[in-house]
Design a protein that fits this description.
about 750 residues, alpha/beta, five-stranded parallel sheet, 35 helices, about 55% helix, about 10% strand
């Protein structure tokens, strides 16, 4: 908080004034111990001496003894002195001992005419911000800045407010203003670096934080630098930065957690486990850290045995949490993660996701909140108001698969709201989605975001991808609309009891699919899998232009490497081994170490075959599609496959071979192929998968025939809007059921 202010000394009161003035001179000269001794002597002679009480209280405050400061300043106040500076400094002392209510009361008593009014308003704003009262916080901070436009600390606080409100660009501007006004206000510079990273300006964030770390040298900045490095995919450097923060005295628990996160990100599950075990051994783990440690999962696994071991660890840690859930105040800030990678283990996650939801609701009962309009809801208005929620309403797999539905719902029957979770990437697809309905940028504070959605009084709330990121997951625990559902954006059940339905397609689900969902399963029975999904066809490049060999048969598996289950390795190697002219193309991961670990895994599986597997660099969407078009066969992963990647391959006219799994996440390719009438590309077993892939790749005439059929039947997959009508009917039926 702000530095305290001084008040005038009391008039002389006899012989003790000599001691008091000597104490004051020592205080002003920085002779703290001597000043304290002289103040004590003055107070021993006159315990009610207002000057000695006041200045000894201020000395105690600056020396870190805020409790003594409060006692002394209250004694001055009790003597009848009601100076604004006294009220203000008492508030500062009360804040230092975490007595916020009392501090706020003192700051509110500082009159607008006082010289410290701006500082008082700043502290009021800080307290209001900490309590989630964004409107009152903004009013107080704006008042402080109107009085003192050069108030660097207030600009920094305003930046924190804008960040929590989801206004990241405004937050960045405020932090930059604070740093420009006061180059020594390192917290503003650190906040600026963190916001740059959140906005995706990773290189700039790393440069700024690295410069600050070298000059400030504090542990918090080195830790923030580590986080920015991790975001910018420089995980090795991130690990060193975290270790530097630890060496400078950052809490060992935080460092162990950071190192575990970094090792998981770079695919070193064994190293991560060392740090997680060290955390488990600590008694001082905060509630959020207990959750983060329990749900931690690596990006890739060394082998199937390691995958199974981590799943068992997840199950046991979650069971322990459910037996004794720690108290969470704000799960978004304290945990801020989801077990996203659990989905790609390929197991039945329903029981685990339900247990996780129960545990969160026990740990934080405030999650299970109901909006007022829901309690009095009887039936939808003339047009059903539907709100779509996601962080990924841009050129992302979620944005691409949801845009057609958001745009296409009949406006005579539906009123569309779009709730965007920060950060948001500005691109053409986002502009389309924003234009399709009322666009609302949600705050980054969970409770503020919840209120913002509730204010719109939706009849239906549609979470596009529950489980992909934490904000929508925690929002989903509240009842913000009479009907709440999720869908294919993250193709696994949420386990959340306030999510009523899961929207899917009949071609994607098995006969026993309902058993895999905690929600009621709703299936569109006609039309494309992704309503209105656009077919992308970039300019064609030759293999030579792409740096690929003309003489080879090219297979491509375009999935992210975390989708490559260790059990799938043998299938990939078998294809390359069976076809002597094969070259298998994979794409590098964001983290170099993840790519290296997958390479090692494939080499252990079949060293000779692995030599004919090439890892392509990460590239633009157009270049990626050009690679796919240049290949003979696209290979869908199993047990968890690809949806958008399958559509992209088929858009390029490249045949896709798939082995469908038993759950939605492994059946997208099968659904797309059946829509196109290409059942011959759907395998029945791993051995059959290898046979079909090699057979199609080795027969040029067959490939051309398949490509022609794909092109002829493409309207069933791309741009088709029949499913929109089917989904609209399902949504109306949901409202009807709730009304009845």
């Amino acid at each position: 908080m702000n530095q305290h202010s001084t008040a005038a000394s009391a008039p002389e009161r006899g012989p003790i004034e000599t001691r008091f003035r000597a104490a004051l001179r020592a205080h002003q000269a920085g002779e703290v111990a001597r000043a304290a001794s002289l103040y004590a002597a003055a107070l021993e002679a006159d315990p009610a001496h207002p000057g000695a009480l006041y200045y000894s209280g201020m000395l105690a405050l600056s020396s870190g003894d805020a409790t003594l400061a409060v006692q002394r300043l209250r004694a001055v106040l009790a003597s009848g002195n009601d100076a604004p500076q006294l009220r203000y400094n008492l508030g500062v002392a009360l804040l230092a001992i975490a007595r916020e209510d009392d501090a706020l009361s003192e700051f509110l008593r500082v009159p607008a005419s006082a010289s410290v009014y701006a500082e008082a308003q700043h502290n009021i704003g800080r307290i209001r911000l900490g309590r989630g009262d964004a409107r009152a916080a903004r009013e107080a901070l704006r008042t402080a800045l109107a009085l003192r436009p050069d108030f660097a600390e207030a600009w920094n606080s305003l930046g924190q407010l804008e960040e929590r409100s989801g206004k990241l660009d405004e937050a960045l501007a405020a932090f930059e203003k604070a740093h420009k006004l006061d180059g020594q206000l390192f917290i503003a510079a650190r906040n600026r670096g963190a916001i740059l990273s959140r906005l995706g300006h990773h290189a700039e964030a790393v440069d700024a934080l690295r410069t600050l770390a070298k000059s400030a040298g504090d542990a918090a900045t080195w830790r923030e630098l580590g986080a920015a490095l991790q975001e910018s995919e420089e995980v090795d450097a991130a690990v060193e930065s975290y270790r530097k923060a630890g060496a400078l005295g950052l809490d060992a628990t935080l460092i162990e957690a950071d190192l575990a996160s970094a090792e998981l990100a770079r695919g070193d599950a064994s190293a991560a486990l060392i740090h997680l075990d060290a955390l488990d051994a600590r008694d001082a783990l905060d509630p959020g850290a207990r959750f983060r440690c329990a749900i931690a999962l690596p990006v890739v696994y060394r082998d199937a045995q390691e995958l199974l071991a981590w799943r068992r660890r997840f199950e046991s840690r979650l069971a322990a949490l459910e037996r004794d859930p720690p108290r969470l105040i704000d799960p978004m800030r304290e945990v801020g993660e989801t077990p996203f990678l659990l989905t790609y283990q390929g197991g039945d996650d329903k029981a685990l996701m339900e247990a996780l939801a129960r545990t969160y609701r026990a740990a934080c009962p405030e999650l299970a909140w109901t909006a007022k309009h829901v309690e009095s809801w009887r039936e939808p208005r003339a047009r059903i108001r539907i709100g779509f929620v996601s962080q990924f309403f841009f050129d992302h797999s979620v944005g691409r698969t949801m845009a057609g539905l958001i745009e296409g719902l009949p406006r005579g029957r539906f009123e569309v709201e779009v709730f965007a979770i920060a950060p948001v990437n500005v691109d053409a697809l986002q502009a389309r989605i924003a234009a399709a309905g009322r666009w609302e940028q949600l705050p980054t504070d969970l409770w503020d975001a919840r209120e913002r959605i509730a204010e719109r009084r939706c009849d239906i709330l549609f979470y596009a991808d529950l489980g992909m990121e934490p904000m929508s997951y925690f929002l989903a625990h509240a009842r913000l609309a009479p009907v709440q559902l999720t869908s294919w954006g993250h193709p696994v059940t949420s386990g959340v009891p306030t999510i009523d339905a899961f929207l899917s397609h009949a071609l994607l689900e098995s006969d026993v699919a309902q058993e895999q969902y905690s929600e009621t399963l709703l299936c569109a029975s006609r039309g494309a899998l992704y309503p209105g999904f656009e077919r992308r066809q970039p300019a064609t490049l030759t293999r030579r232009e792409l740096g690929l060999p003309d003489a080879k048969r090219l297979y491509i598996c375009a999935q992210s490497l975390f989708k490559l289950d260790p059990r799938f390795d043998a299938t990939l190697c078998a294809i390359v081994e069976r076809d002597p002219d094969a070259l298998l193309l994979l794409f590098e991961a964001r983290q170099r170490t993840v790519t290296a670990r997958v390479k090692e895994r494939l080499a252990r599986c079949n060293r000779v075959a692995a030599e004919r597997i090439r890892f392509l660099p990460r590239c633009s969407i157009d270049r990626y599609l050009q690679y796919v078009r240049a290949c003979d066969v696209a290979l869908d992963t199993w047990p968890v496959g690809g949806g958008v990647s399958t559509h992209d391959a088929l858009a390029a006219g490249t045949p896709v071979v798939t082995l469908p799994g038993g759950a939605l996440r492994g059946r997208f390719a099968q659904g797309a192929l059946r829509l196109l009438g290409l059942d011959e590309c759907i395998a029945q077993s791993a051995e059959d998968y290898v046979e079909r892939a090699v057979s199609i790749a080795g027969d040029a005439d067959r490939r051309r025939a398949l490509s022609l059929r794909i092109d002829e039947r493409a309207p069933a997959l791309f741009g088709d809007k029949i499913a929109i009508d089917a989904i609209a009917e399902l949504l109306e039926h949901c409202c009807q059921r709730v009304r009845n």
